[in-house]
Amino acid sequence: MTTVQVTTPGGSYPIHIEANRLDRLGQVIPDDATAIALVSNVTVAAHYRERAETALAASGKRVIYIELPDGEAHKDWQTLNLIFDGLLQNRLDRKAVLVALGGGVIGDMVGFAAASYMRGIRFVQVPTTLLAQVDSSVGGKTAINHPLGKNMVGAFYQPIAVEIDTAVLSTLPDREISAGLAEVIKYGLIIDADFFAWCEQNVPALRALDRQAITYAIQRSCEIKAHVVSQDERESGLRAILNLGHTFGHAIESGLGYGIWLHGEAVGCGMVQAAELSALTHGLPADSVERVRTLVQAIGCPVQAPDLGQEHWLDLMQVDKKTEGGQLRFVLLSAIGQALCEGVPAQALQQVLEKTAAPARV
Ligand code: NAD
Ligand code: GLY
User: Fold this and answer.
1) Which residues pair with 98 in a beta bridge?
2) Is 243 in the active site?
3) What's the CA gap between 225 and 206, in Å, rounded?
4) Which residue from 131, 150, 331 has its CB within 8 A of the most atoms of ligand 1, so it is best to mutate?
5) The predicted structure's pLDDT at residue 327
6) What is the pLDDT of residues 241-253, one digit of tens each?
């Protein structure tokens, strides 16, 4: 087993990475917990609910189960309320522990529920998608979507542990693997050029979930994310670089309707757009832009953005948490492995949208 430690003012906790970790979940439940609420969705539950419940019950605590509908389109108030319904109907108190078993949608919603139920109870992340294992389960960002903007309502709230079972990835559809790999290569792009080059060299192994390659990719991603959030938990500076490709990506997700493109697919395409923007504003060399495009395509994510119309694109991008005083800010690359967050000239943005979000030519 590999352990990566996260240390923030809001909480310090281990990330355990190991095949079949699911069977050892009971080990992370604190002795003073009064009950456990396992939260998942119908898809993940069909594969893993029974094993998770058995492992949690081994802690000797009462385990209740709450099931949510599956999908980004359900990451909303109505679904969040189902968690509170379950907790209240079962009379769970302040010393209960929530366990999020699922991808980023479950993790973000359970985290938000934990942050607000009785003004805050403990929770454990058990991420079951690659994207959740390398990104969303770590760092304490929790949220639901608003029809006008992605992840616009939420809280910073750290889990007490992140339990990563690499074996559960075997039931994940290929498209979800590709989406998760987009967030993996993001870490190379923003902070670690050697890791980006390693990803370039290991695409077939990563897509095939080769045990050694995927475990290393998860570990390195968690190390980088832990390093960044340990320095800037609440995104007052450095943490913004974790949003490379997200201003474009979130616009794609909300512009097309949540769930049409996967979050990781939108981020992958958004990183290509951010690289194009970086070439115009920060002299990112053309061959680096091509390396980004080639790798995003190689992992199986789209590189041509949808044509939402220039005005609509700009409107959608305005609803971004990095926007300050109406001024859009983007994560940009001065080189592969070096990121910064800044405003850009309107003309450069327009040029990039024309180039990357044009209707496909036939
Ligand atoms: P997801 O949670 O929708 O999961 C993708 C699909 O895979 C779902 O249908 C799910 O039921 C299914 N699934 C999950 N695990 C499975 C398994 N092992 N086998 C078979 N099917 C499985 O999507 P996601 O990509 O995991 O997460 C995306 C969400 O994460 C977005 O809402 C995004 O905003 C959020 N996010 C949050 C952060 C953060 O820091 N909090 C970071 C990145 C993304
Ligand atoms: N996924 C962006 C962040 O955690 O800050």
Assistant:
1) 37, 123
2) yes
3) 19
4) 131
5) 86
6) 999 999 999 999 9
